[in-house]
Amino acid sequence: MWSRKELKDKAKKVVQKNYWTAIVVCFLIALFTGEFGTSIIGVWQSEDSMDPNYIVHKEERNQEQKEREAKLILSEENIKQTLNKTQIKAFESIEANLNSVTKSQKYIFKIWDAIESFTINKTKWGIALCFGAIVSFAFTMLVADPLIVGGKKYFLVARKGSNTKVSILGEVFQKEYWWNIVVIMFLRNIYNALWYLTIIGGVIKTYEYRMIPYILAENPKIKRKEAFEISKKMMKGNKWKTFILDISFFGWYFLSILTFGILGILYVNPYNAATIAELYIELKTKK
Fold first, then answer.
1. Sign of the CA dihedral with 203 first, then 40, 23, and 11 last
2. Is the pTM of this model over 0.90?
3. Residues 150-172: pLDDT tens digits?
4. What is the 3-state secondary structure (H, E, C) of the chain?
5. In sequence order, what are the residues at sequence separation of 6 or more whose Cβ sits closer than 8 angstroms to the Cβ of residue 239?
């Protein structure tokens, strides 16, 4: 039975042996995929892009939309008024990391933006947003998701030695691996997006599919059904413990927010990534 302390102790050693390359890898992953929500906004994202209405300007919305938005804002403000400063920071940290978890479905929200633009007779906006959704979809599917798998591969290799090369990120883009990774990660994102329509189901399935990028990192030619089945077996009985493991980093995320993401870049992101890689190895051996 694994423990958080053991995983984190092992992860710290990995980061110490590969400190500078780990920083570079996590920075690139954050920059191009948005994987680490509290440290940096990806070049292809907007910080508000989890809001389905973020592109459509407020003054262009109809009265019903404005009233609905006002109610949501008021509701959120009422909740925040009952919290102290520490709780508010924790709330913002959780929100940022949920955004990071669901980053791969953001192009779906952009499609929603486009549809809404057409319904309010903003045809030019709708066309522009359709184009944006296509670009976002293509980048996510063809570049960002394989890069995420490359990041997992880096930390799996890094645990075996020191000064691991950043070039490991590029191995997943080899012709014989890349398309299989693209397809399986795409299906994982779609399944997650559909399950998020049920809210709770989305959270459960996110954890059930959590190990798929690591499985692909080790075996990029694996079949889709096998990848999902292995991840499901690995996470059976471990979803709640993994959730608690994620929560245990909130203190670090809070400090990262206070340092405007600098601490995240210089330590928290590599530490977190190395810890989850250790979790994968632990679950793999006990599978």
1. negative
2. no
3. 999 999 999 998 989 999 999 99
4. CCCHHHHHHHHHHHHHHCHHHHHHHHHHHHHHHCCCCCCCCCCCCCCCCCCCCCCCCHHHCCHHHHHHHHHHHHHHHHHHHCCCHHHHHHHHHHHHHHHHHCHHHHHHHHHHHHHHHHHCCCHHHHHHHHHHHHHHHHHHHHHHHHHHHHHHHHHHHHCCCCCCCHHHHHHHHCHHHHHHHHHHHHHHHHHHHHHHHHCHHHHHHHHHCCCHHHHHHHCCCCCHHHHHHHHHHHHCCCHHHHHHHHHCCHHHHHHHHHCCCHHHHHHHHHHHHHHHHHHHHHHHHHC
5. 204, 207, 208
- What amino acid occupies position 138? A
Cβ atoms 201, 216 nearer than 8 A: no
Task: Give dist(CA 217, CA 267) in Å, integer.
Answer: 23
Residue type, 102: T
Task: Please determine, for residue 122, whether its predicted confidence score (pLDDT) is greater than 70.
Answer: no
* Distances 280 to 77, 189, 238 between C-alpha atoms, Å: 39, 20, 11
Q: Would the CA dihedral through 252, 234, 30, 101 be positive or negative? A: negative
Residues 280/238, Cβ–Cβ less than 8 Å: no
| Other CB atoms within 10 Å distance of the CB of residue 128 | 15
pLDDT at 94: 52
Residue type, 228: F
Token pair of 11 as six digits: 């992860």
